[in-house]
Design a protein that fits this description.
The protein is mainly α. Helices cover about 60% and strands about 5% of the residues. A hairpin with a 2-residue loop joins β1 and β2. α4 crosses α5, α6 packs across α7 and α7 packs across α8. The longest helix has 20 residues. It is globular.
Length: about 140
Amino acid sequence: MHLPFSRAVKAATNSRQVEQFILSSFVNMKLGKNQEVSGNATVSKAAPETRALRKEAGNWLKARRSEAGLSQVDLAATLGLKYYTFISQVENGFSRVPTETMEAWALALKLDPADFAKHLLVYYEPELHRLLFGASK
């Protein structure tokens, strides 16, 4: 049963319950459709198709890295990353190229930054790519 906010607050028996109620109310208002609350943290659930698209992006990036003659360690050093494992995470679909570093990635891979970003948009934001450019891939 959902009580109006003011009645629910009055019904709470202690300040911890009030605090938890208010917090959960705000969190629920902010959640996206593919998110859930786990303990005190909000966790995004990557849909299976999202993971598959990220893996495709990773395969594409790995091929571009190989064409550029770079190892994961070389690419990480060029990008100023402390650990090459981030490159591995991206190539295996567990992470994505951060938007703010796409230009650096493109230049390191000897690709045009605009084309690089546009291509990654196909995988990372397919609906946005479709709206901006028409059919994907």
